[in-house]
Amino acid sequence: MRRLLLLALVGLGAQLVDGSLGMAYGVTSTTLLLALNTGAASASATVHLAEIGTTLVSGAAHWRFGNVDWAVVRRVGLPGALGAFAGATLLSGLSTATAAPIMSLILLTLGVYVLVRFTVSGLPRGRVGLPLRRRFLGPLGLVAGFVDATGGGGWGPVGTPAILASGRLEPRRVIGSIDTSEFLVAVAASLGFLVGIGSESINFGWVGALLLGGMIAAPIAAWLVRMVPPRVLGSAVGGVIVLTNVRTLLLSDWIAAPAGVRYAVYAAVAAAWAGAVAWSVRQHLADRPVAQVATGDAGSGEPATASS
């Protein structure tokens, strides 16, 4: 019972972060399951089964608060489902030890770009509203879905920074669309795991605990992402990406940094991240009329649509 309560709390916290920043549910939950000596495929399967419910509730909440671009959901989510099914069925025989540092380096670069861009200049208004093309969203969804299934998380960390970096969609719509499309990814990955490892390797009590916590947090997170100013939200997302992928690289065989070095780097990154968020909040308050125009446009204007 104590373990189920812990899993429910982890699900709540992970979904609160995921629903408001567009990432981290899978990474957080899978990390805990692996720490409990769960096999990689079983851990990923457990998380994705729970995500069927959490992403459904989260998507509905984001839709209710006007955070979803349905053209983006369709054109990134369907390829993502294909990638997730392929990744799930291949996970038992696939080693991601080599691929993980490469992906983390790419994501770290995107994270630094997003963090600096939103902190220094705020929301890039010049390109917001321009179409996100199918030839960009399709391959992005395929790769993100495959990484998500094989790594137990990755749909948000891959998809959110890539679309944010394009500057063509409001941050809250990026997060809402990524969270909503993740339902398709979760369903496809779960089917792949059921085909690949069967249901006997999955603890459905753990699935239920993660699901319960996530469903409670989903509406709160969807409301939060609508209320947070875009500039602050962009800085927050960028910091999550940077910190997560710096950790992955320092722990990888490429670097294998000792504990003292790792913690010093984590502290430096966290301090820089906190400073960036504080600066964005300060600039938002100093330039509130401009920020109000931006959020007003987001709430009343038409969302950016994908085009071919």
Automatic annotation (TrEMBL):
Segments crossing the lipid bilayer: 99-120, 181-198, 204-225, 263-281
UniProt subcellular location: Cell membrane; Membrane
Keywords: Cell membrane, Membrane, Transmembrane, Transmembrane helix
Annotated membrane topology: Multi-pass membrane protein
Family of this protein: Belongs to the 4-toluene sulfonate uptake permease (TSUP) (TC 2.A.102) family.
InterPro entries referenced in this protein's UniProt entry, alphabetically: TM_pro_TauE-like, TSUP/Inactive_protease-like
UniProt name for this protein: Probable membrane transporter protein
Organism the protein comes from: Micromonospora rubida
Major subcellular location class: membrane
Superkingdom field: Bacteria
